[in-house]
Amino acid sequence: MNNSAANTGRVLWAGLRALLVLTVICGVLYPLAVTGIAQVALPGQANGSEIKDASGKVVGSELIGQTYSLPLKEGEETPAPDLKWFQPRPSNGLGTNSVNTQYELILSGATNRSGDNGAVTGKDGREYCPEKPEEGTLCAQVADAKAAVVKDNSVAGYTVRPSEVPADAVTSSGSGLDPHISPEYAKLQIHRVAEKNHLTVAQVDKLVADHTDGRILGFIGEPRVNVLQLNIALKELTKG
Questions:
Q1: What is the pTM of this model?
Q2: Statement to judge: residues 80 and 174 lie in one domain
Q3: Host domain of residue 38
Q4: Which has the closest alpha carbon to 232: 101, 112, 67, 129?
Q5: 116, 171, 204, 227: which could join 127 in a potential S-S bond, CB 3.0 to 4.6 Å?
Q6: Do 11 and 78 fall within a single domain?
Q7: Same domain for 27 and 95?
């Protein structure tokens, strides 16, 4: 009986020592080592790829998109876009940032609707969105978004045609957090942004060109524009 108790005690003590040693190694030393290496080798990425404005204040991350909207009015469920800023891709999951100085993530995610949601089959056997799609379908969402893009970005002397609206202007990304838009969508917004901010089209066009990133290593991905970085530059330009 005593030998059995002693053996049990030795096993428990060995297990406890292993737990303590592994806790120190895996729960303390390893995380500290990885954190230290990351802070030395890749400090920006390790700290969340933060973006700072001209004053040095953190206004968001280059990895997460933001919306630019007007304050919610009484009776409104969705705030109207603040059209003096470049607008991101549509999303129901982005936090608001109407003054470009704060960020709050509420939720993220896509619509989870299939690509043919609300579509009808044509005579050629292909799926098409009808002229008047059923309310609540993806086709209706895209149609409403395209009409809004055409309306919001058509200003005196410049009219947007529906055929000029790129796909990323009317569809959200899979995560709902995409921080980038295509150069085509950014350029489509130039005339409206110039008018709202009392700038010349040439000034805003240069701003977009300066903030357009090419393909990674020249062949990976597509050219893109980070909306937050572009709007920070726009804010500084309007101050001048």
A1: 0.80
A2: yes
A3: 1-47
A4: 101
A5: 116
A6: no
A7: no
Report the alpha-carbon distance of residue 88 to residue 77 in Å, rounded: 19
Token pair, residue 164, equals: 């000029």
The string of pLDDT tens digits covering residues 21-67 is: 999 999 999 999 999 999 999 998 988 899 888 888 888 888 888 88
Structure tokens at 12: 């428990």
In this structure, the answer to whether residues 33 and 122 fall within a common structural domain is no
Residue 87: helix, strand or coil by DSSP? coil
- Look at residues 125, 163, 126, 169 and name the one whose alpha carbon lies nearest to residue 144: 169
Closest CA to 59 of 226, 238, 237, 240: 226
Q: In terms of domains, do 26 and 109 share one? A: no
Q: How many structural domains is the chain composed of?
A: 2
Same domain? For 115 and 14 the reply is no
* Helix or strand (DSSP H, E) at 52: strand 50-52
What does R_g of the chain's alpha carbons equal in angstroms? 26
